[in-house]
Write a structure and sequence with these properties.
single chain, alpha/beta, Aspartate Aminotransferase, domain 2, 7-stranded mixed beta sheet
């Protein structure tokens, strides 16, 4: 068998036809920036996530940077960031002139509950990352942030469709940021992202920042930029949204199949709570000290896997930051993401699980 980690060519014919029809419809309409599809996407997401304001933009990295700018975070400010995340989370803090202060994660890669110890007089904000799609415990984090009068920017790039106590990832903080990168649970056919907020004022500022500081054409009130979403991507996302819940059902089903078949392997740590509502099963990350050996073994059997991520941010050249970061480092050395996506077949999940059983027994 050949089981790629993720192969988007595998989308089914009906979906491909729906996307082609959307493209044809948009080509006929002749509107490629802004327009109906962008408004529809924003209102669909607002309804689905119960988010008062949803503002589409060019990608998830921009979404976080724009959130920081809208919250007026800049030079002299410190922002607490988990040591294990995709580089964007810290990169944008540097891009706005502030300083990322890294803190360790728990064993599953979520910002450790004792992050408050990193707070100084310069700390302005904290960025919890819902890594792999699993939500940070937000009630607690928000209470901690309030105590220190900190702003909260949620990095929900991996967690579209995760809900904690009925409240969506990205709707707890001052601003929540989403990525619609093609590999995400809700992914476009290119780059796209979004900011969520329940503040009328932030909604306005975010919209202005991503559109050259203007709300009305040619009325520039401050220096902004262009981070508007590509309208075609908004159109495609509207198509993908109609399929989102059914693809989530498949992800959860496959995650539970892995769980049943792998849970008895003592040498393996499985993702905690992946069948819960606050984990959209974006990534199924197992942990083992024999990670590299297992990866190689699976590859020889035709199974693609991935590592999210092999290095922690404080060790990276652009950041170099002292500290222990034991849990984050452990995860970078032991974590292995198994193929899990709606384009797979049950027989493939079984094949992967059996190969892992073979490896350990
Ligand atoms: C945790 C995290 N933050 C931010 C981003 C940035 O999103 P984008 O790739 O859309 O810029 C990603 C995307 O991979 C991510 O996984």
């Amino acid at each position: 068998m050949n089981i790629p980690f993720l192969d988007l060519q595998r989308m089914d014919i009906e979906l491909k036809d729906a996307l082609k029809s959307k493209f044809a419809e948009m080509l006929n309409a002749g509107i490629f920036s802004g327009g109906r599809e962008v408004s529809l996407l924003e209102s669909h997401v607002s309804t689905y996530l119960h988010s008062p304001f949803s503002i589409a933009c060019a990608n998830g990295t921009d979404a976080i940077e724009i959130a920081l700018r809208a919250l007026q975070i800049g030079p002299g400010d410190e922002v607490i960031v988990p040591a294990m995340t995709w580089v964007s989370t810290a990169e944008v803090v540097v891009m706005v002139g502030a300083k990322p202060v890294f803190w360790d994660t728990d064993a599953n890669g979520l910002l450790a509950a004792d992050w408050e110890k990193a707070v100084t007089s310069k700390t302005k904000a904290v960025i919890p990352v819902h890594l792999y799609g699993k939500m940070v415990e937000m009630e607690r984090l928000i209470a901690q942030a309030k105590k220190h009068k900190l702003l909260v920017i949620e990095d929900g790039a991996q967690s579209f469709g995760s809900f904690q106590g009925g409240k969506a990832a990205g709707t707890y903080g001052h601003v929540g940021c989403l990525s619609f990168y093609p590999t995400k649970n809700l992914g476009a056919l290119g780059e796209a992202g979004m900011c969520l907020t329940n503040s009328l004022e932030l909604n306005k500022r975010i919209r202005m920042i991503l559109n050259h500081g203007q709300l009305v054409r040619d009325q520039h009130e401050f220096v902004g930029r262009n981070s508007r979403i590509d309208s075609l991507q908004a159109g495609f996302l509207n198509v993908f949204l109609t399929r989102f819940e059914s693809s989530q059902v498949l992800r959860k089903k496959y995650a539970s199949m892995y769980f049943k078949q792998l849970t008895w392997l003592d040498e393996l740590q499985l993702p905690t709570g992946i069948l819960e509502d606050d984990y959209n099963a974006h990534l199924f990350v197992i942990q083992t000290v024999r990670r590299d050996e297992l990866k190689h073994f699976l590859l020889k059997k035709g199974i693609g896997t991935a590592i999210h991520y092999p290095y922690i941010l404080p060790d990276m050249k652009p950041f170099h930051h002292g500290g222990d970061f034991q849990n984050a480092r452990n995860l970078s050395q032991k974590g292995l993401s198994l193929p899990l996506n709606p384009w797979m077949k049950e027989s493939e999940i079984e094949y992967v699980a059996e190969a892992i059983q073979d490896f350990f027994t």
